[in-house]
Write a sequence for this structure.
């Protein structure tokens, strides 16, 4: 999955340069110290069908989660809002009526993240869903490098001697394992902030992140 | 909208913010993660803002010497606590803040904190209230003592003078010369392990009145019954002792070693307020009219103590000492000198515990020697009661006063009656017992009282069944908290006395009885019970804190009523919740919660239904 993304990104870089697109800066190497923790709430767990309901993102710098520098977007509702998903994220059609059109939300998100690396939990899923929206609009996929806290956590556990099959990688289990309070589970911003804290927490464990 | 950010806005002072202010707060918060023993703010740094702990533990340390890294720890902060406000507002950190364990904090930038303080006066007040305390602690170092600081000042070398110890075998002449050389008015002599005190007056009396030769060993005239305080105690307590014993000096000891002497004159130079002036007026009064004038000052004193934010406990101590002096002075004026050694005036109830703030009523009784024949007793006591009423102490509605023959008894009758009450254990008996257990000797022959008290403490030891029914009384009045821990409001207001103060006082009284604690003051009883391991230290200190808060709310309420010209008889304890600000309401709620916990503790201990 990730390898495929890398290959596609090479292609995207080439394309963007050819087109002299205004988004070229997204593909420049990032030299700063910040990252962006990202989470999206969707209607389904199936990448090919999932529709985005809300997007949350927050900046991480050093040991800080800059929750004052955040993005919280609610999108206008998809035509069919599956009942099952309503139960999880508690976003009813009525809550989404005020939302942004998808294209506008995606544009805001890309501007917010810029070329900073992305941090997420099971981030491949979020990126795949986002790509489905980004590609038709701009003709490239999410360009950022990313870090998955799930991988970091697994590595940390392995270093301390756990066997893979014993490691519970659910979001709650990770938060609990690291003694990180879960803030507003199943809201995009809440999960993004929790993920950010998990990342900061894992980062300070030796030897995981350069 | 921002429910995603689980910032706990239900805790003080953040629940004082309105919706707009709250979302400004929400939008400005950052989150920081610290590893164990990481320094969050170090002294002198410019702090980023106010820190609120989401999870973890932080200590505030004083780092005095660079070599001694870990100084004195002031405070430990944990979940939902905030810290660094004072440092943020001041622009530089006053102490070190260090993470004790892995800690996640919210940070509210100083600029936003200031915005909120200016926008919302209640929120601002909260910081001011808390900060003023810190401010005082800080200023205390600068030796600029005001009244409140005096109350908090402790006995150390700055307020005492070195004790001048006379060389062994000094004669009266030597002593006089020694004291002149040292320019002191008193000196100590050592006899064996004991210290005795000799003052200029003692020397004068010995030579002029008793005509002792100047070669007499000074040991012969020294006074060995010294009144002492422990070094580190409140300076204020030394003053109370001096007022109580009518002396000018107390000796400072530290674990039975001589440390120094505190002189009344020195103390007075610290003490600019007129509370001691009141004390002196009482002291100097030679007639009832003069006493009356002194008593009039006491009302003002309470008001000024309250206005200056003196801690309730200190205010109560001070007033109790003054009340006691006044009553005893009056008693000595009223009762013939020939009778005094054969009777003992006791204060009972809240007066006996030293917990009256606004003078409520007189609760007193008289214990007499068994064979005393004193026909004028009833007449004299009637006069005493009436005079106290004139001085502004209203009559006790329950007639617990010396003009009531029921409370004027010979020692044997007094003890026999308590035995009857213990055996009977009905409502009246329990009430009478509660009143007499808190008795405290004020004037006359205190040995009479001590005999009865010691007898009672011994007697109750063997009466486990009685203690159980006695303890039950603490649960009689309901504490006005609902199931969810909120205050249950009634139209008539909340009775802080029945719902809060009484259960603490009574519960502590029962425990004190069971464990033979002779103290009568509730704070001192709690302290003794903690020392004995009867009360868990945490519950004990929470109880003292809650007791102070409840008394403070009650005092504020009474002062308010007095301003509306209520007579002392009309004062009530019904607090109207509307009249409290949010901070006070919150404190009240927490205090009542502690009362509830304490009741639970009692039910478990005495297996009450």
């Amino acid at each position: 999955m990730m390898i495929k993304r890398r290959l596609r990104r090479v292609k995207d870089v080439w394309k963007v340069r050819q087109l002299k697109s205004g988004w070229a800066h997204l593909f420049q190497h990032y030299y700063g110290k910040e990252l962006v923790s990202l989470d999206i709430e969707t209607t389904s767990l199936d990448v090919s069908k999932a529709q985005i309901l809300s997007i949350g993102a927050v900046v991480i710098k050093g040991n800080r989660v800059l929750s004052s520098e955040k993005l919280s977007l609610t999108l206008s509702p998809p035509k069919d809002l599956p009942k099952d998903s309503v139960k999880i994220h508690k976003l009813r059609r009525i809550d989404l009526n005020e939302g942004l059109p998808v294209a506008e939300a995606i544009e805001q998100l890309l501007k917010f993240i810029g070329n900073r690396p992305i941090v997420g939990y099971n981030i491949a899923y979020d990126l795949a869903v986002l790509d489905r929206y980004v590609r038709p609009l701009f003709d490239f996929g999410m360009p950022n490098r990313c870090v998955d806290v799930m991988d970091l956590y697994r590595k940390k556990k392995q270093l301390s001697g756990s066997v893979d099959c014993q490691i519970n990688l659910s979001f709650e289990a990770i938060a609990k394992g690291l003694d990180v309070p879960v803030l507003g589970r199943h809201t995009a911003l809440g999960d993004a902030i929790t993920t950010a804290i998990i990342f900061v927490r894992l980062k300070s464990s030796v030897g995981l992140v350069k | 909208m921002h429910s995603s950010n689980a910032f706990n806005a239900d805790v003080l002072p953040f629940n004082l913010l309105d919706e707009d202010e709250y979302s400004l707060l929400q939008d400005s918060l950052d989150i920081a993660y610290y590893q164990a023993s990481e320094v969050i703010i170090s002294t002198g740094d410019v702090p980023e803002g106010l820190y609120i702990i989401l999870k973890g533990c932080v200590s505030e340390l004083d780092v005095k010497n660079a070599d001694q890294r870990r100084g004195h720890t002031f405070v430990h902060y944990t979940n939902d606590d905030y810290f660094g406000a004072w440092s943020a507002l001041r622009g530089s950190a006053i102490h070190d803040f260090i993470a004790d364990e892995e800690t996640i904090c919210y940070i509210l930038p100083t600029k936003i904190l200031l915005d909120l303080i200016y926008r919302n006066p209640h929120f601002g007040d909260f910081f001011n209230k808390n900060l003023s305390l810190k401010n005082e602690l800080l200023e205390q170092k600068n030796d600029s003592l005001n009244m409140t600081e005096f109350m908090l000042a402790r006995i150390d070398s700055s307020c005492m003078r070195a004790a001048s110890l006379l060389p062994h075998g000094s004669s009266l002449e030597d002593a006089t010369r020694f004291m002149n050389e040292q320019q002191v008015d008193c000196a100590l002599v050592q006899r064996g392990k004991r210290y005795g005190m000799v003052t200029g007056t003692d020397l004068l009396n010995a030579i002029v009145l008793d005509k002792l030769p100047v070669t007499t060993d000074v040991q012969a005239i020294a006074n060995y019954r010294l009144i002492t305080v422990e070094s580190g105690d409140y300076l204020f307590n030394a003053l109370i002792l001096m007022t109580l014993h009518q002396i000018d000096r107390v000796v400072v000891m530290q674990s039975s070693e001589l440390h120094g002497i505190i002189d009344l004159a020195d103390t007075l130079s610290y003490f600019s307020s007129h509370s001691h002036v009141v004390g002196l007026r009482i002291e100097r009064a030679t007639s009832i009219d003069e006493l009356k004038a002194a008593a009039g000052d006491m009302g003002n004193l309470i008001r000024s103590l309250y206005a200056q934010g003196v801690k309730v406990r200190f205010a109560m101590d001070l007033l109790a000492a003054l009340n006691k002096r006044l009553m005893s002075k009056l008693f000595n004026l009223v009762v013939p000198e020939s009778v005094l050694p054969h009777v003992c005036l006791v204060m009972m109830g809240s007066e006996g515990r030293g917990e009256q703030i606004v003078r409520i009523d007189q609760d007193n009784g008289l214990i007499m020697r068994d064979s005393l024949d004193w026909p004028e007793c009833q007449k004299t006591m009637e006069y005493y009661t009436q005079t106290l009423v004139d001085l502004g102490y209203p009559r006790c509605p329950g007639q617990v006063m010396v003009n009531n023959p029921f409370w004027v008894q010979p020692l044997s009758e007094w003890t026999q009656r308590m035995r009857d009450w213990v055996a009977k254990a009905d409502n009246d008996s329990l009430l009478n017992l509660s009143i007499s257990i808190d008795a405290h000797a004020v004037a006359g022959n205190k040995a009479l009282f001590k005999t009865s008290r010691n007898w009672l403490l011994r007697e109750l030891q063997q009466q486990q069944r009685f203690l159980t029914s006695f303890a039950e009384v603490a649960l009689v009045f309901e504490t006005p908290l609902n199931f969810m821990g909120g205050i249950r409001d009634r139209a008539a207001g909340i009775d802080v006395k029945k719902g809060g103060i009484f259960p603490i006082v009574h519960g502590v009284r029962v425990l004190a009885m069971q464990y033979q604690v002779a103290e009568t003051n509730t704070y001192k009883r709690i302290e003794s019970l903690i020392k004995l391991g009867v009360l868990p230290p945490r519950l004990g200190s929470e109880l003292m804190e809650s007791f102070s808060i409840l008394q403070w709310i009650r005092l504020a309420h009474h002062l308010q009523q007095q301003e509306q010209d209520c007579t002392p008889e009309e004062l009530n304890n019904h607090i109207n919740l509307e009249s409290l600000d949010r901070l006070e309401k919150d404190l009240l709620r927490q205090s009542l919660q502690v009362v509830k916990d304490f009741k639970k503790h009692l039910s478990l201990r005495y297996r009450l239904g």
Q: What stands out?
A: Chain B touches chain A at residues 2-6, 27-35, 54-55, 102, 104, 106-107, 109 (CB under 8 Å). The CA atoms of residues 539 and 601 of chain B lie 9 Å apart. The longest helix of chain B spans residues 537-563. The longest strand of chain B covers residues 49-55.
